[in-house]
Amino acid sequence: MRTKMSFKAAIFMVLFLRTSKAAISYDDCKAGDAIFKKSKTELIIHGSVEWEESFQVTNDMQCSMACRKHTNCQSAIVNESNTCTLRDVNRRSAQVTFKPNPSLRYFERHTCPPSVEQAFIAFVSDVENCKDIYAKGHLQNGIYAIKLSSGVYQPIRCNMVNQDEGGWTIVLRRISGIVPFDKNWETFKSGFGSLDTEFYIGNERFHQLTQNGTQKFFIKMVLRGGNVRNMIFDEVRIGSEAEKYSLNIGDAMTGSYVTSGGKLKNQNDGKKFTTYDQDNDNADNVNCSHNNENLGWWYQQCGAVNLHGVWSYTNGGSPGIRWGGGVDEVNGQRENIEKVYYYIK
């Protein structure tokens, strides 16, 4: 005897089948669909998350479907008590490390091709940076997971086929303005954004990566019309938190605008990091972050160079992303700096 399926039940079955198939293979979903991969993983969050929600569920599907409904949800975790926790971070967020945990069921949002990158190109041990990963024979651009001495994994984004061979660790990536830089001290310390899109790895990690041996510092800027400005400095070191994460750079050695590289060295070398809640700049009676829409930066005074400026601000002036000295000019006219990258090696 045939029974009729209710409309709600039919819709649930379609969603169930579609989600189940998508969890198995990218080939079964349409471009732009949100799909989830499952693993037994624990996220360790350094700093804070902007959005988090917890509630009870009766099965894993309810948790992953709830995450799918929230556009800002990037991961869902179900514990042994069937508590579902949704967060706006995942294993590829700048402020997290992660480790296996058999008691948790972890679901991570992906987007179907062609826009998705695979979660990690490789899991690599006994390395500290992308130069080490490159030396092990990994030559593909993208996101890797490195195993730290503590046993946890940390995401890292590498450029393996760029200027001066490969092995560049990407410290900062600004490409569309979706991640603002008006953050407080603790957020700049721990990092923010997603290695999939825009991010800053954080002052503490930048400090740690520049303590062992000499690191070259490669800054790449792309103007609104597509013109590229490159500078490579022969050394960079970020001070400790006790030193207020001071910026210490060497001389500009190569690139399309080498002579303008001296502007960063002359104005910002040795300067401490300032945020809207911690004033470490050289300006008298004012916090330069307050004068620049609460942006964090290594201020000397409150103007001139600032690559953490407001994205796509008109004509590249304050408080926009700016350099000056002809770097952000084309035919004598200032042009917005729309993409910024920091690389170290």
Automatic annotation (TrEMBL):
Residues 29-112 form the Apple domain. The keyword Signal applies. Coiled coil: none annotated. PROSITE patterns: FIBRINOGEN_C_2, PAN. Keywords: Signal. InterPro entries: Fibrinogen-like_C, Fibrinogen_a/b/g_C_1, Fibrinogen_a/b/g_C_dom, Fibrinogen_C-term_domain, Pan_app. The keyword Signal applies. GO terms for cellular component: extracellular space. Residues 1-22 form the signal peptide. Residues 121-345 form the Fibrinogen C-terminal domain. PANTHER family: FIBRINOGEN/TENASCIN/ANGIOPOEITIN. This is Fibrinogen C-terminal domain-containing protein. It comes from Clytia hemisphaerica.
